[in-house]
Input
Amino acid sequence: MKTIAQIAAELQGYDPQALSAADVNQFLDQLVEPVTGTETLPLFSALGRVLAEDVVSPISVPPHDNSAMDGYAFAGDQLAPGQPLTLRVVGTALAGKAWAGAVGAGECVKIMTGAIMPAGLDTVVPQEFTTAGGDGQITIAADVLKTGDNRRFKGEDIMQGRVALARGERLTPAALGLVASLGLPTVRVFRRLRVAYFSTGDEILSLGEPPREGAVYDSNRYTVFGLLTRMGVEVIDLGVVRDEPALLEAAFRQAAQQADAIITSGGVSVGEADHTRTMMKQLGDVAFWRIAMRPGRPMAVGRIAGSKNQDKTAPSAYPSSADSYQNDTDPSHNGAVLFGLPGNPVAVMVTFLAFVRPALLRMMGSTHSAPPLLRAISTEAMRKKPGRTEYQRGRVTTAPDGTLQVCTTGNQGSGVLSSMVQANGLIVLHHGQGNVAVGDAVDVMVFDGVI
Ligand code: AMP
Ligand code: MG
Output
């Protein structure tokens, strides 16, 4: 486990006062490590979890050569160009009920989709390409078919003994189905990541408190809760923590003891009067950054030490499966990774999506971290200074000609959540990029499938 100073020394041109977004991702990649604890879960409980081991197929799927169509199976070498072919139907093969007899030249077997191909036959003519004669014969029209058509091969989906899904893959609905198709009822996955979060700031009101002059309701805990829950991590909500050293220390210590990662919002900008920064420094190995980005900019990252000899235990509500919850030897048991986000509500979401989410995915054991960006045509001009990454709230739509287009959504102030609500993605204007003209293509991180 590397210290902040060690990672910083290895990162070319590291300047905590002017980090690019790419530097931040690289740094965090070094800072965090996948959890080591695993558990075995039934498939219905495993959606969204990350595989802790390769799934090796015990069988071939499909297990036999079989028919892809309802029709007639026959030996394809009887087809001749320009010639119809007449065959006598000698039997029927149903899905789940094979036809075991021999099939000679001039003969065929009526076959249903999924039924095992009778021995020696390699071709299926779909029902609709045939005409029935009176006397149990069918005729295949000329040139509608070639040898091998409509036959599915044994193992064409997965061969026995092959890796069907690799360690580090997240279990999507398709992946659950694939594992089930192998006859496997359970999967070994990484344990759920535990993430604690709290909001800081004396001006922050918890819901239920009466409004007060100069104070705002805490929205960050709710957006962070939503972002984390979408990722399938276990959330530990530590509330709003007032700006008192003893309260902050208690919150950080509890978080470091219970969680693998801690997300705070507020109190990390330079010149903050509060104690958050001081406490982070005191309790951990923490770097304070100014990132070349908008919105965002200030961010603290590092590790908050845990109390000695105190194992991180799963809360009692943890739905552990029978075999299976293994207390791991995670380095993070000796503390938790800290993501100290800025206070502005949109900056929280943007820094989460740009930096925290990929880092947490890595901690979850996932080998994929960045969702692909879409290219869309900007319907408006945007001012952009090269030398920082800017994230604009955008709405992607499909133009009548089928191309994707994007426009920004209203007031882009970093505290304005309503424009975030209207957005279905973030327009990412990269570090080196300059002004955008109407009609230029821009990258968009779409929320769908991400948050
Ligand atoms: P800070 O990063 O602490 O300087 O906060 C920047 C801005 O974000 C200030 O206007 C804060 O009032 C606001 N802010 C900080 N924390 C929250 C929160 N939890 N919910 C809503 N707004 C917040
Ligand atoms: Mg503040």
Residues 314-332 have pLDDT under 50 and may be disordered. The CA atoms of residues 150 and 324 lie 44 Å apart.
